[in-house]
Amino acid sequence: MIVAFSISPSGGDETGGVSEAVAAAVRVVRASGLPNETNAMFTNIEGEWDEVMAVVKQAVDAVAAVSPRVSLVLKADIRPGYTGQLTAKVQRIEDALS
Asked: How many domains are there within the chain?
């Protein structure tokens, strides 16, 4: 499965920024060893249900450590029997554009 998720604290720093809290969540994802990528809006992670959801929870906990309230947006592509789709899905689109 691939999960795209976004975690944000309820408030930002003195400029309204949330990058430090979000970076704590991304560190958790990267340390998981699961295939992942981060873009301007979401972090994508690929793996089995239990392992992906455990990482999402740990990432939420990392943000909750610095904020009394956390927002989580999550979208999942559940396709049993398929792996490597984090890059393969994008490659199929690129191939179709050629």
From this structure: 1
